[in-house]
Amino acid sequence: MVRSTDPTHSERAAATFALALEPDTASTLAKISEKASRFLARNVRTKRLTMRNLRPLVTFTFDDVAASACSAGATILERHGIHGTYYVSGGGCGAASPCGRLATAGEVKAIWAKGHELGCHTYSHTAVARLSGPELELDIERNRSFLADIGGDGATRNFAYPYGDMRFRAKRRLEGRFRSCRSVIPGINAGAADLGALRAWPLEDAAIDRATIGELIAANVRAKGWLIFYSHDVREQPSRFGVSPGLLEFSVAAAKSAGCRVVTIAAGLRAAMGGSENEPA
Predict the structure, then answer these.
(1) Which CATH number does the domain housing residue 236 bear?
(2) Among 18, 134, 146, 200, which one is most buried in terms of CB atoms within 10 A?
(3) Which residues are CB-contacts of 241 (< 8 A; sequence separation ≥ 6)?
(4) Structurally, how many domains does the chain consist of?
(5) In this structure, is residue 72 part of a structural domain?
(6) CB 280 within 8 A of CB 266
(7) CA-to-CA distance for 95 and 88, rounded, in angstroms?
(8) Per-residue pLDDT tens for 120-167?
(9) Domain for residue 189, yes or no?
(10) Cα–Cα distance between 226 and 215 in angstroms, integer?
């Protein structure tokens, strides 16, 4: 069951009050309001899902979609008979990035054709907190159109926040448009999940080791939860935000050997709602 709450009244009241004050005071209160908005976005379950999956779930996701995630990353997943979720920002396709070259539209289309899921990461890769409502809608629609052109008909069903940054109002808008929004808030989704801010763990050589991965997977099994990993590039010498092929291979094997179902975000949602992750999207 999905439930929704809306504590926007206090947020609106704080913003209105701030505008009526002297510039310095108004600026201070605006910053407080902004922090409060981010706090609410991270801590209030606005799209609550009571989880009904029968087995623990694990998902591997890739943000921005570096070319190496489409080649080395996809190859590792496919070798284990599984698929990942790739959150695409269409405006960056083919461009250079701190994570190496980003995948071209053709490379993104190729992994989609192999069964990997495409998700939305905005078109411009702008933090949603910086966009007005109309600007955010335009950016999302532009990415939807881009992904539809390369064949990803269902690519706008799930979303991930660029930089993990969100405000309460943007979160409410996005969770109304997408089936799920994945955050970078660390944690395992268990018992009840917030589909407006699914919790996830960074799968990055610079941030995690094999022992910690094993502990997370064991905790996920005990909780019969949904553990979502996110990363960027997949290279022998990854960026600060990337994972090495060896660590990705270890993580996939560890999840499977522990009895977890390794699924895409779309399949994970179906399982968490009590259905089969093998049902058509």
Answers:
(1) 3.20.20.370
(2) 200
(3) 98, 99, 202, 204, 206, 231, 232, 233
(4) 1
(5) yes
(6) no
(7) 13
(8) 999 999 989 888 999 999 999 999 999 998 875 555 799 999 987 788
(9) yes
(10) 14
